[in-house]
Design brief:
alpha+beta, 12 helices, globular
């Protein structure tokens, strides 16, 4: 199909990359791009360390005091100022460094292009750290599609088997535990600190590539804003630092100069125009993940308000919407049909405030002294199922609604949360549900430029009409006598079967299996149609499965 080769002409963005160390002997994973260790700048890692403490506040050891010379100054005895070693700031975090562990994971990813099988397993190493309750935190991408996870403490030669308790794909955090009590002997949990200020010193501790022992890099907080989380395909609060974050640093803690944890290293920006740009998951996001797990016994995610909005910076636009000179807010463009209270809000409503916090015309709210941040930060502080008070302007009238917040239901999901991909085969036609991992499997890491335009449009702009809606495509056609002439149909959406709309893959499989018509008729995108004789197609399916060594005509989730 000529349509499947079309590409978008937009320039490629500077995408942050997750930082995880992959063994050289194993094939690299295709689910996430990896940070390139060759782009780090080790010579600059000393930049931004904490200022040296005043000598009057330093208590020297007796041995060093007795060995110092005493100077005569204006007839009085005086001591020279004590020089603080350059490693003093690092020494402060030494007790907490014993809580940093090395994470070894064996991954077995699904093969989304051939969903009845899995890819060859590969190994990776990353970092993690111990928190209260005999738990360990690391990055979600460090244990994605795991088959085995092991942890090794600093200075130990033993690797302990770990169990994954929860994986937060949106926030890129995973929680582990170890059943062996020996692992927890002599290990103190890391304490969390408050959000750091700009230019505050941070020390990133972990096990990056280049060696087997623990590594420490220092820097400062250079930016704090709503960031794009590469692994989760979402936007949450994040810290930008200038300390080097390389492959293997993922999941390691970032300490302040008091030795408390202020974040988790998780991705870096690799670009020819940028250097030493690393990103850290801050403590509000970490605490949200931990509290969510403790409240619900599982990770439920970060909620959304379920709207797309437009800035109201143009004065004529504000006047046309009936806004007064002292009113500020953002205009609702679209409302997610799957949002819990989607019927309360309407397009062209102007949101004036969220939970009592006024929203500016550019969509920001006050954050800290001299700082503003996107109002989605306020939403992300809530939990799934919570309610929020939203004040809107509608037809020049101010209305207030109590909105229930829910998780985001994407038509093309960013993750399938560890489940095997679904598929259905009839007459050699392989039907699949589209997801971001599927697009990446079919078109590589630059899928957002190489995938068919119509699929990209749905990926970027389409909204799911119901919670179980899926975008179903003909993934490929396994060639057989019955499907002659259809061989070139690839990744084309299935719109209807026998004139009935296709809601999801299970809906399609049910309709086909129960069809008694003489022909199976599929309506596809681009006004294409496929017709197969029902009895012949169902009989030929068994031979096609045998030829391609496929164990079943449908995935297990479609059989129930």
């Amino acid at each position: 199909m000529g349509e499947t080769k079309r590409k978008r002409g937009a320039p490629k963005s500077k995408t942050p990359e997750t930082a995880m160390d992959i063994d050289d002997a194993a094939p690299p994973p295709t689910s996430e791009p990896l940070a390139d260790a060759g782009t780090s700048q080790p010579s600059r890692r000393g930049r931004g360390r904490p200022r040296k403490t005043d000598s009057a506040n330093i208590t020297a050891s007796p041995e060093r005091r007795s060995s110092r010379h005493v100077w005569e100054q204006n007839g009085d005895a005086a001591e020279p100022p004590l020089m603080v070693p350059s490693w003093a700031s690092v020494a402060r975090v030494v007790p907490a460094m014993d809580s940093v562990v090395k994470v070894f994971c064996v991954h077995t990813e699904p093969n989304f292009s051939l969903p009845w099988q899995r890819k060859r397993q590969y190994s990776s190493s990353s970092s993690g750290f111990v928190i209260g309750g005999k738990r360990v935190l690391t990055n979600a991408h460090s244990v994605e599609h795991h088959t085995q996870v092991k942890l090794k403490k600093r200075g130990s030669e033993t690797k302990y088997l770990a169990t994954v308790l929860a994986i937060g794909t949106e926030c890129d955090i995973a929680m582990l535990t170890v059943s062996d009590d020996e692992f927890w002997e002599g290990v103190s949990p890391v304490e969390f600190g408050e959000l750091p200020a700009l230019q505050d010193a941070v020390t990133v501790v972990g096990y990056p590539i280049g060696g087997d022992t623990i590594s420490v890099t220092s820097g400062v907080v250079s930016r704090m804003e709503i960031l794009s989380y590469v692994h989760g395909s979402t936007e949450l609060l994040g810290l930008q630092i200038d300390a080097a974050i390389n492959s293997g640093n993922s999941g390691g803690p970032a300490f302040n100069d008091k030795g408390t944890c202020v974040g988790i290293a998780f991705q870096s920006l690799k670009h020819e125009d940028a250097e030493n740009i690393g990103y850290v998951i801050p403590t509000p996001v970490i605490k949200h993940f931990i509290t969510d797990y403790e409240k619900n016994g599982a990770y439920t995610g970060f909620p959304i308000i379920g709207i797309e909005w437009q800035k109201m910076e143009n004065p004529d636009l504000r006047t046309s919407m009936g806004m007064k000179a002292d009113q500020k807010g953002v205009r609702i463009r679209r409302i997610e049909p799957t949002a819990p209270d989607s019927h309360l809000l309407q397009p062209s409503d102007v949101i004036l405030s969220f939970d009592g916090v006024n929203i500016a015309n550019d969509g920001t709210v006050p954050f800290r002294h001299g700082e503003r941040i996107g109002f989605s930060y306020l939403v992300s502080q809530k939990y799934t199922g919570d309610s929020a008070l939203v004040k809107v302007l509608r037809n020049s009238k101010i209305l207030e609604f109590k909105i229930k917040l829910g998780t985001h239901k994407r038509l093309i999901p960013a993750h399938i949360k560890g489940k095997p991909p679904s598929y259905y085969i009839i007459g050699g036609f392989v039907f699949s549900a589209v997801s971001v991992p599927y697009l990446r499997s079919e078109y590589g890491k630059d899928y957002d430029f190489d995938a068919p335009v119509k699929l990209l449009d749905k990926h970027l702009h389409a909204m799911a009409e119901s919670s179980d809606e899926q975008l179903v495509v003909v993934s490929q056609v396994l060639v057989a006598d019955i499907n002659i002439g259809y061989e070139d149909i690839v990744n084309t959406q299935v719109l209807a079967f026998s004139g009935k709309p296709v809601k999801n893959l299970k809906n399609l499989a049910t309709m086909v299996e129960s069809c008694d018509d003489e022909y199976l008729k599929f309506d596809l995108e681009y006004n294409q149609m496929v017709a197969l004789q029902t009895k012949t197609a169902k009989a030929a399916t068994l031979d096609i499965l045998l030829t391609h060594c496929i164990p079943s005509a449908m995935s297990d989730d479609l059989k129930s």
